[in-house]
Amino acid sequence: MTQDQDWSAAPQKLPEFPVFLAAPDLSPWMAGNAGVPGVWRLDAPDGKPGPHVAIVCLMHGNEIAGAVVLDGLLRQGFTPLRGTLSLIFANLDAFARFDPANPTASRFAEEDMNRVWESAALDGPRQSLELDRARALRPIIDAADKVLDLHSMLWPSEPLMLCGPTAKGRALAVDVGTPALVVADHGHVAGRRLIDYGRFVEPEAAATAILVEAGQHWERATVRTMQDSVAGLLAATGLGPARAAREASRCAEVTQVVTASSGAFTFTQAFQGGDVVRQRHTLIAVDGDVEIRTPHDDCLLVMPSLRPSRGHTAVRLARFVDCHAPI
Description:
By secondary structure, this protein is an alpha/beta fold. The protein is about 20% helix and about 25% strand. α5 links the parallel β5 and β6 (about 180-185).
């Protein structure tokens, strides 16, 4: 994490995004074995009881690192020590369009699949490839006790876990342990993510979902971080072997979501996720005629998007908190 920089310096040139990963061959897994294409159910030997854990990849079709990880689990013949493990290859339509020569073009086919997880959309009449796929996956999601949604990022950032707005989400993220940075937030104005889906944010419900942002798209290190996250989840739920002690978690809460309101949103720097701006009221961006300044000291920048489009999240601003403090 970058702690001290000269935030008044001139904006830097934006990075390019080479593709160091090959998309895995998912043809052996397309049919699934759970009644839904692309979904695999793995049960413990002799039906040993335990939680139903689901791991989701390819919520966005170009985030192929998660598919590499789940493909590896299936090829090695992983069997949970107890309970049930569901492995979900989510947006197969978008994944089929992935082209390493134009890797940003296949995030989705018709709409962002991670903005449709609310009853108004899922139970409504509207149709799209992503919405129809979410409806098909909904019974598996409804049956899961714990869900880990594997994601990666376009812009450089420290890996992190998003735990949503609940204490139970933060507790699960801390138990998983990798990445060490855990951020509580309330999502996006554009629609609900899977981790915001009803039962996962209902305080009285035990079901919990977290999202890992494991690093940049198409980087080998991102695959390794996801593998560590999956191992942490399996250990925390008893479906996999225990792990050695990990780095202590650091927790933060989002205090402000900055949504681009114009097509002229510009950061003052090529910020990276995990950067900390020390002083309150520091100018970090301009949105048309509006200045965006840090609302407090030691302001953590969460996943800044250096080329945000109008109506989309440009950055989340957060403050560090005690991991055991109430949310």
